[in-house]
Amino acid sequence: MNIRLSALLLSISALALSLPSISSAQVNGEAGRASDVVVQGSILEPEKLQVKDDAKLTALIRAPEGFKVEVFARDLINPRMLAVSDKGIVYATRRSVGDVIMLKDADGDGKADDAVTVASRPGMHGIAFDRNSVFLVTIHDVYTADVMEDGTFGPLKRIINDLPDAGQHANRTLGIGPDGMLYIGSGSTCNECQDDNPESATVLRASKDGASRSIFASGLRNTIGFDWEPTTGALYGMDHGIDWLGDEVQVEELNRIEQGKKYGWPFVYGMSGLNPRMDPPEGVTLEDWAKQSTEPVLGYTAHSAPMQMAFYDGNTFPADYHGDAFIAMRGSWNRRPPSGYEIVRVNFENGKPVAFEKFLEGFLLQQENAKYGYLGRLTGVAVGKDGSLFVADDSNGTIYKVSYSGSATTQAAEAGTIPNVVTDMPASKIAIDLVEAKSTNAIAVKSAFEKDGPIPLQYAADGDNASPAIEWSGAPEGSKSFVIICDDPDAAKPKPFTHWVAYDVPAATMKLREGMPGTPVLQEPKDMKQGANSMGSLGYTGPKPPVGDPAHHYHFQVFALDVETLGLEPGAKRDAVLKAMEGHVLAEGQIMGTFERELTSK
Fold this sequence. Notes:
Elements: H1 3-10, E1 28-30, E2 36-38, E3 47-48, H2 54-59, E4 67-73, E5 79-84, E6 90-94, E7 99-103, E8 115-120, E9 126-130, E10 133-137, E11 142-146, E12 157-160, E13 173-176, E14 182-186, E15 202-206, E16 213-218, E17 223-228, E18 235-239, E19 252-257, E20 268-269, E21 273-274, H3 286-292, E22 298-300, E23 306-311, E24 325-329, E25 342-349, E26 352-360, E27 364-366, E28 372-374, E29 378-383, E30 389-393, E31 398-404, E32 444-447, E33 470-473, E34 481-488, E35 497-506, E36 511-512, E37 529-530, E38 552-561, H4 574-581, E39 585-595
Parallel strand pairs: 3-28
Antiparallel strand pairs: 1-2, 4-31, 5-6, 6-7, 7-8, 9-10, 10-11, 11-12, 13-14, 14-15, 15-16, 17-18, 18-19, 19-22, 20-21, 23-24, 24-25, 25-26, 27-28, 29-30, 30-31, 32-33, 33-36, 34-35, 34-38, 35-37, 38-39
């Protein structure tokens, strides 16, 4: 141990970080268009410290009474996400190395025997087990492989190859939901911006063969850690707050993540705080965006940098820990004083989160000269089959094992099956078969493809994902607005898959150019609104049937209404639009095209 480190360790003082109110803010003034605010930011990067002796290192780490912290493995370079297989073997992904390592403890001494690389791809980060299969995610790709008898992985099979570009947040994570679907955390490309890919800043939901996926929830800047509460089946995740809004803003958000909801980013943060630097698209105010967004259930100290999250389902910790969540907080670089560098526990009561409390501390140290240093930046948490908790530090390359050695442990009940709370839409007919028009005269509809002919690639998701030009004629007198809906009845789920919902199209508009923007309210045609497609984004999304499927049929349907507006906010779903149309449809028409993906595409 060098003299400087010895002096530092002799002069350690505990760093007390207070938890601010979720409504506390350093933003002063008025937020909105033509904002006038003052924000003060900080850059404070603690120094990395190393303690080579296991006993001295773990003696610096503070845990609740009765808990024991041990070094499970050292010198691993960059362990990030952790996972434990059905056989109890610990695995860690290493983003900077680009691999997955297996860490067996064959002799049962509480330490890993060695590290064995079992998979290797650049940018490897997320990992999840599903019985004898493993799923892995890099920036753009999702892989699956069989888990062999000895714990190694079979050949990797790529099932997804087109996740969004990552930019600032390249740390993809994934998990298997109670519904048997694959959930993927897809962070934003930036601190705060209007990402042009609707799959950025989301949690995605995909089939385990990768053949189909949709946006499960949006407005999530960078939700790396997420997991399912074991008694309710609700999905919870910790989202990284926006930087440069001040030392106390934005808090890190614990969200209950539900299908179809949006969570504010980049325009709204915390408890409906309005971002003074970002204006939503024309036709939508910050207040509108806040009303349409779901607030977090709890907030934690700003800039703590939440990473992996895991609910405790073991039976060796005290019984009141069962069903609580652990979250790794990697630590700040832009807060004074620093925050994070710890493991926190989220207390759940009756299946709902009620409070944060610190579980492992001592990784962040302060010298007498007021400089800060850290012993670890914590990234991964996973519950072992023996009920212990594994914790990864990606800076000093260490994995810790936390066990309970107290004598008053009460055995928790065995974990049951996590309920599935996600309900897919029931099968339905295409819109034109559900709507009763007052006139039997059909509207004539034309598009950029021949009737019943193939749809050109530029209008498909694998092409330019541009909406095709569409025009119509023959609308009856008295038509005051139009609705456009594009349905694919050949999709497996949902049936039909809706590719476009547009409403309040002005009566004077009889055609739309190709490549309409995916904004909630259009400037041309003025005040035309767009709803949510089955992908989970707004506006048009192009055909993307599973590879190997016969050609799907895409029905572009036009409805003439006797009202100027349906009275719906932008972003409405097809069912809401159809309900609002009832009794107002004067006439209807459609054009159908087909599309089949090539076997070489994905």
